[in-house]
Amino acid sequence: MTRPALTQNEYLSEVERLAREVRSAAWEEGWLCYGHDPEDATTLQRAVNALARVLQHHHFPGDGCVEEEDRPLVELVGVVIIRPGAMPSALDETYEQACLRIGVEPREEGWALWNTWGKGQSRMTMVVSAVDTTDGLLANWSRGVDILPVQPLPSQVALIQQGWAGPMTLSPRAAKKTGLLDQA
């Protein structure tokens, strides 16, 4: 059976998709490196690291690329952004009401709620001022780019709550783990 002929754009999209899978596999194995390759990196690891560095994605502050490589990445299951006049449609409250419920002062820029895990895999939400970072995450996630942010600075964390805030936009990794990507 012959494969259907792909257009140039379809071919490039498929190559990029496969490159992202290679990068994700290296990340899951724990050796992907965006900075300088470690001394003991194999030829294959160096090639995959080089591939990961050139894969195009929307860059944003806190995206974990080279300039901030000394801060650990935060694995997120999903995020929620609340802003004055731009609340998630599934929330039946105003921005001010949401801030009161969460326990933060309303800010003109809004707040980002990062759903992640604490010790013992307990569900937790970090309420952070890093709204621009979260916008960058969402821009990448909407294109299927599985990127994680760096750990926010202590001054960016307003509070940490037990449980996850919702309704959240799932990260591509979380959507894949739950099987939601397979259903699309």
Give the helix/strand layout.
Elements: H1 8-29, H2 43-54, E1 78-82, H3 95-102, E2 111-117, E3 123-128, H4 131-141, E4 157-162, E5 169-170, H5 172-178, H6 180-183
Antiparallel strand pairs: 1-2, 1-5, 2-3, 3-4
Protein architecture, described:
This protein is α+β, with helices and mostly antiparallel strands and 184 residues long. It folds into two domains: 49 residues, no CATH class; 106 residues, no CATH class. The protein has six helices and five strands; from the N terminus they run ααβαββαββαα. Strands 4-3-2-1-5 form a five-stranded antiparallel β-sheet, with helices on both faces. The longest helix has 22 residues. The protein is globular, with a radius of gyration of 18 Å. The two termini are 26 Å apart. The model has no long low-confidence stretch (mean pLDDT 85).
Biggest pleated sheet? 5 strands, antiparallel
- Distance from first to last alpha carbon: 26 Å
Structural class assignment: alpha+beta
Q: What fraction, in percent, of the residue positions are helical?
A: 25-40%
Largest sheet strand order? 4-3-2-1-5
Number of helices: 6
Rg: 18 Å
Poorly predicted runs of 5 or more residues: none
Shape: globular
Order of helices and strands: HHEHEEHEEHH
Please identify the oligomeric state. Answer: single chain
Strand-residue fraction? 5-15%
When the domains are counted, the total is: 2
Roughly what is the average pLDDT, rounded to an integer? 85
